[in-house]
Design goal:
Layout: H1 5-19, H2 25-32, H3 35-43, H4 46-59, H5 74-93, H6 97-105, H7 109-118, H8 124-135
Helix pairs in contact: 1-4, 1-8, 2-8, 4-5, 4-7, 4-8, 5-7, 5-8
Length: 143
């Protein structure tokens, strides 16, 4: 399957810029309940959702991993775990394009968690919330 990572990153970066204005739980949930966005996410193949989750984790890997809200929300937990997996991968293998490609293609902990979230067709809003939580954490200096 061909996935244009550049387009995914561009879309996530745009979303992160919007979320940077108000990166709180309510703003994330408002985006996640948008009917158009939610419908698009549900129709997206789970393999693509997996890559989007991993790409978002990769971009957010340098971010503070303190939860945005103080609650025990699953999306916060999963976002922190995915960003941590990406951070650890980059520490071990580098942060260039080859390391990113290996991160999204190697069946390590981050990939397994992302796949589990992406293939859960009964709870696609959760995986969308995880992506949005990660995008809210993108470093502000990245394009």
């Amino acid at each position: 399957m061909y996935v244009n990572i550049t387009e995914i990153i561009r879309a996530l970066t745009t979303t992160s810029q919007l979320l940077a204005l108000t990166p709180d739980r309510n703003a994330l949930r408002a985006f996640a309940t948008d009917p158009t966005l939610n419908s698009s996410w549900e129709r997206t193949a789970p393999e693509v959702r997996t890559v989007v989750l991993l790409a978002a984790a990769w971009q957010a890997r340098q971010a503070d991993r303190t939860p945005i809200s103080r609650g025990g929300d699953l999306e916060q937990h999963y976002a922190v775990e995915l960003a941590k997996a990406a951070h650890e991968w980059a520490d071990q293998y580098g942060s260039d394009d080859a390391a990113f490609t290996a991160f999204i293609n190697t069946p390590a902990a981050g990939r397994l968690l992302a796949s589990s979230l992406a293939f859960d067709r009964d709870d696609t809003p959760l995986s969308l919330l995880v992506v949005l939580t990660l995008t809210a954490r993108f470093p502000k200096h990245r394009p």
